[in-house]
DNA sequence: CCCCCCCC
């Protein structure tokens, strides 16, 4: 019986730099494996073992085809036709990257006894004997590029050479290599061209370090197969910064591919491009390259997202605040900052913070619609948004969501009252809580310690449901300045009066304010927390000044009863964890900023989520 | 070859 598989394909890929054009191989999947290196966006990657009946070879499936694996269409012993693919050499191993495929009907039986072509190289740990027939593979890096390219010319873009036609380079100077999908780029090949849209471009940043001074910029390219970040230094900034416009399509070739530094970007690619002096970039007017796709989260639904998640948001700029400046605690550098307020049909308003040059140059007094991609969700004031380096914003974009918002705002939104995200759900507890508002992430005391919240340079915020086990009676307050303007600074007893350094005056008597030290616990542990005046007063149900009066009058029963009443009560504590030092040892101070009746609904939702994580 | 994504 004739095999339905494309005989000889594996050997061709393995040994040749020139895979024939127009070959659309049919191969059998021997295994599918999820790779334990998901992209920054959390997208899974799948590796396939592909057989032509005689040999097998490794394959990768482009992420946009993952659904075929996830719904089991592509599975062990399934036959697939590689409608679009490239080949690739990675560390001497050949890899087929599948960009498009069709399922070929088959009865599910394994065909032949395929052998591992890589055996003789000793790169793989399989047990089958070496394949004597296969000639030694080419070892030099980039050997796969030619093969991939050849396959490419006919196939990438797919539409009968349409891509190739449009891909005709204006200059035709150097040998810039074949058109490649972004998905197929790797450091082991140097002859390639991508045709991709710039979806994001940074400012030019200047830096100076031990190696000297320099400048750089970065941008993100996107095509139908994926996205990749690119960075240029010094001369390449002069060469390309102005040329590369956000939203436009370019050919890029003769650049270096490096391993991506993931900690600095959320672009979903293992690699990134580095522009070099010989890099060639040319504009291209092919509009078929995809545009930025948005996945908008309604402003009223931001409470569904976790802190630090990235999301896309579109809204009308209701307010633009003054330009401000903050000093980073980590670097001591000042940063320009500007808050704007966004609203949408949900009736909810959210604050979004712009940074640096974007903050300085932002001007929009005509309440435009702005679409944001990849902004970071914060939990300050319930929910807030912050621009991220790789975030983009598009003013009055020509998309349906923007037109609909514009129409709504001009017709009715303009005169509407909006609900701001707030932390006001605290104190009200339960049903009366402000809609959409959600306090900081829920953590048990054990989690707060395990995750070392407050141990880094930054302050961490969290909410914890816990019970007051003990309230310290000895020192519960400090004598504060009596100035009615609310100075609240500590004052010193000078005998003749209580002196405030800040106000430069003395008072007959101080006003006592709380610094209440409490031990609180939940099922995972206990910690000492401090509550200041307003919060402590709420817990103690008496002002610090009145409590001090009871103490001074020697009314021990009444005095003690307030502490007793406070003990044993359960609250939702809004906590702030911050590092400071005590006897030169770093330690975390837990400050309670607010308390509320325990939010049982939120707590059980949180527990349900934890349970579902366990039971996967 | 950079790189902090900040602050209340």
From TrEMBL:
Residues 127-142 have a biased composition (Low complexity). It is found in: Nucleus. InterPro entries: Euk_RPA1_DBD_C, NA-bd_OB-fold, NA-bd_OB_tRNA, Rep_factor-A_C, Rep_factor-A_N, REPA_OB_2, Rfa1. Residues 114-151 are annotated as: Disordered. Residues 11-104 form the Replication factor-A protein 1 N-terminal domain. Keywords: DNA replication, DNA-binding, Metal-binding, Nucleus, Zinc, Zinc-finger. This is Replication protein A subunit. As part of the replication protein A (RPA/RP-A), a single-stranded DNA-binding heterotrimeric complex, may play an essential role in DNA replication, recombination and repair. Binds and stabilizes single-stranded DNA intermediates, preventing complementary DNA reannealing and recruiting different proteins involved in DNA metabolism. It comes from Kwoniella shandongensis.
């Amino acid at each position: 019986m004739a095999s339905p598989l494309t005989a000889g394909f594996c050997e061709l890929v393995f040994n040749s730099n020139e895979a024939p054009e127009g070959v659309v191989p049919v191969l059998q999947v021997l295994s599918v494996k999820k790779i334990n290196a998901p992209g920054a966006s959390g997208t899974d990657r799948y590796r396939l073992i592909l057989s032509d009946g005689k040999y097998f070879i490794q394959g990768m499936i482009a992420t946009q085809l993952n659904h075929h694996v996830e719904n089991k269409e592509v599975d062990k012993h399934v036959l697939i036709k590689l409608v679009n693919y490239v080949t690739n050499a990675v560390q001497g191993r050949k890899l087929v990257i599948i960009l498009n495929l069709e399922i070929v009907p088959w009865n599910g039986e394994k065909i032949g006894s395929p052998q591992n072509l890589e055996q003789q190289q000793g790169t793989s740990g399989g047990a089958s004997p070496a394949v004597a027939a296969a000639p030694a593979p080419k070892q030099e890096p980039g050997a796969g590029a030619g093969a991939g390219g050849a396959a490419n010319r006919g196939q990438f873009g797919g539409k009968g050479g349409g891509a190739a036609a449009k891909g005709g380079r204006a200059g035709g100077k150097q040998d810039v290599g074949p058109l490649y999908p972004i998905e197929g780029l790797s450091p082991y090949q140097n002859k390639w061209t991508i045709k991709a849209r710039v979806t994001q471009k940074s400012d030019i940043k200047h830096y100076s370090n031990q190696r000297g001074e320099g400048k750089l910029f970065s941008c993100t390219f996107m095509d139908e197969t994926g996205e990749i970040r690119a960075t240029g230094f010094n001369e390449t900034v002069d060469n390309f910064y102005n040329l590369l416009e956000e939203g436009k399509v370019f050919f890029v070739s003769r650049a270096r591919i490096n391993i991506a530094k993931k900690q600095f970007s959320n672009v979903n690619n293992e690699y990134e491009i580095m522009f070099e002096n010989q890099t060639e970039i040319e504009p291209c007017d092919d509009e078929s390259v995809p545009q930025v796709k948005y996945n908008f989260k309604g402003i009223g639904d931001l409470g569904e997202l976790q802190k630090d998640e990235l999301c896309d948001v579109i809204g009308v700029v209701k307010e633009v605040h003054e330009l401000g400046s903050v000093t980073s605690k980590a670097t001591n550098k000042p940063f320009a900052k500007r808050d704007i307020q966004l609203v949408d049909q949900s009736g909810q308003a959210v604050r979004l913070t712009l940074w640096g040059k974007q903050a300085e140059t932002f001007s929009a007094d005509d309440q435009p619609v702005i679409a944001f991609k990849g902004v970071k969700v914060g939990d300050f004031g319930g929910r807030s948004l912050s621009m991220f380096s790789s975030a983009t914003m598009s003013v009055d974009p020509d998309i349906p969501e923007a037109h609909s918002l514009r129409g709504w705002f001009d017709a009715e939104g303009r005169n509407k009252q909006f609900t701001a995200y707030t932390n006001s759900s605290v104190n009200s507890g339960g049903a009366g809580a402000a809609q959409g508002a959600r306090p900081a992430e829920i953590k048990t005391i054990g989690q707060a310690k395990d995750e070392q919240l407050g141990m880094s340079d930054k302050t961490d915020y969290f909410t914890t449901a816990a019970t007051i086990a003990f309230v310290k009676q000895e020192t519960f307050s400090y004598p504060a300045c009596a100035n009615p303007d609310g100075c609240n600074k500590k004052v010193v007893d000078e005998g003749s009066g209580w002196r405030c350094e800040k106000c430069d005056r003395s008072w007959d008597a101080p006003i006592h304010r709380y610094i209440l030290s409490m031990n609180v616990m939940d099922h995972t542990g206990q910690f000492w927390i401090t509550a200041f005046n307003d919060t402590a007063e709420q817990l103690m149900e008496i002002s610090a000044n009145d409590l001090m009066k009871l103490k001074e009058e020697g009314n021990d029963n009444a005095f003690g009863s307030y502490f007793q009443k406070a003990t044993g009560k359960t609250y939702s504590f809004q906590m702030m964890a911050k590092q400071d030092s005590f006897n030169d040892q770093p330690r975390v101070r837990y400050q309670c900023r607010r308390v509320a009746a325990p939010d049982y609904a939120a707590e059980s939702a949180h527990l349900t989520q934890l349970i579902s994580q366990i039971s996967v």
